[in-house]
Amino acid sequence: MVDEAARLAALHEYGVLDAPADDELAAVVRVAAMLATVPTATLNLFDENRQCQLTTVGFEGADSPRSAAMCEVVVTTGVPVHVADASTDERFAANPWVTGELARVRGYASVPLITPAGHVLGTLCAFDSEARAFTDEQISALEDLATVVLSLFERRRQARVTAALAEEAQQARALAEDYARQLEARGQLTDAVHESIDVAIVVCDEFGRLSMFNRAAREWHGIDPDAGVDAADWAGRYNLYDRDGVTPLPVPQIPLYRALHEGEVTGQEMVIAPVGRPPARVVCTGRALRRADGSPLGAVVAMSDVTVERAQRRELADRERLLTTVLDTAQDAFVVTDPDGVVTRWNPAAEAMFGWSSIEAGGRRLEELVFPQRADGESLLARAALGNTRLVRVPARRRDGTALLVELSLAPFTWQGEKRFHAFLRDVTEREAARERLALANSELAAANDELDRFTAMVAHDLKSPLTAITAYAEVFAELGDRSPSEVKAVAAIIRSATRMTSMIDDLLAHAKACHEPLSLHAVDLDTLVDDLTTELRTSRGAHITITHDHLPAVPAQPTFLRQVMANLLGNAVKYVAPDVAPRVHITAESTDGWVTIRTTDNGIGIAEQAREKVFALFHREDSGLGYQGTGIGLSTCKRIIERHGGRIWIEPGAVSGTTVCFTIPARSNTAPPQRSGPDHRATSHRRM
To answer: Where's the PAS domain (predicted)?
Structure first.
């Protein structure tokens, strides 16, 4: 019985159905026609429903229904068939290939195409339109040709299989090449990563031979890996030390050795310290490597440089210890609270100030411990959260209930993501009491000074009248004739003493006035002021006096007071000169940062360095040994006036000799004069008076 499914599977496996016949098959069909001595022959293949004439000789081949095929009997039986006249054979007489519907076959011979597995794929058929008989030799020759056809089918199948295998091999080769390229790219990427990262990677094989150092490892160790170095020599060769940086690392403690023999190493710290290089403190993590079958492959260790991190940790710990020491030894109380105001830190100064130990204070609210209930009910912590308690004075209480006044600086900060508050508290109870006592004393002193100045002015005024009378009577007495030389000398002495006393009283009055008379500032033209004073001095003391000045600005000042300052300075400048020296004075002005600095430079006898501050003291007179007369009040009065204007006055040595007296006046509303500086030697245009 025919297994049709298996037969069709075999037919389709050969892949010749509906495929063009090649030259070899066409040649076989021609040989078949020649051997059978017929004009026509065909190679037929049968699928489920049709007969396919793959190649023909003597007629145009075509497909036809399987039910109409004469060779169906051969396919069904698998046995060759040949008849001399098909029209007389009951099997074929009614067939359309015999009746003339498709053809007029008479002589007919057909042999099966049988596979080695016994499946009939089709037939090799030779026929003639004339009746004729076929010999056994012809049928045997056709069977041989059928075998040749099957061989050609098999060769085609094998070629197709070979082509498919070749294609698969090509695809596999392409896949392998692509995989190799991917592996190469991955290897290059891995190498690039290994060479670019700052983590050192070291690898050994299953026998403990070093096989790889990446860039970081080579830099840290200073050399390349050497597979010939035994593990016992790793520490010495690659400068491996324990955490202390001094003790060479024992072999069982070397991270790569541990990873290879123990399977894993995590977080081990060691030091790599090559000679001539800064040591690197590293943390090592590694594990053993195994193949897919579980056999050992080697070990790998990654090392991260924590030198900076450890140094930062040490520095942070040192800072924390320093901060703790500072806070524990500080005289101010220091307190830290959580967001609810519960104390978490309480230093010894807080213990001493409030009487609560740190253990007793911990866990209790700061306001409960220290601050009495506020009348307005407002929480200090709430104010601090808004930035309103940077520095305030608040009443506080000690553990024993006694009150004190503290200066409080309370501010929020963030610690590990949580808002907290820190406070510095200073006991200012005694300081405030002392300040009140000082304010009272200052008030009393100011009142006493006012009374003293009024008394001075009154006494000076009361003394001036009799002195004026003494001077007048002495002058009248001196004008009377017939006086002895001794009487004339005595009267002259009386007049000089009275005049000196009058000058001192005038200076005292000017000094008192400079201290207490209200300032009424106006723009004072220094050019005009100096010119007027120069004229007065030359009139009273002689034309030999030379006073020059640069262009001088107008400054805001009390005109009378500023005139008194300049008069004193110019008077001293032309007075204190060596004998037979013509006085020369030059005045300059410089404006900087809202201040005007006036410098009066003379060619006088000068002032010793140690006396340059003393000369501004009241009644101080420097002894020059040359008999110069003075009251010691003028420069003190100048100092009072300048300071009341908000300026300063000081003395510098002249460029060559003499003295430079400098003072500052604010050009606008200033509260402090500029720093003192040396004499200004820049070239200026001179204006001679």
So the answer is: 319-373
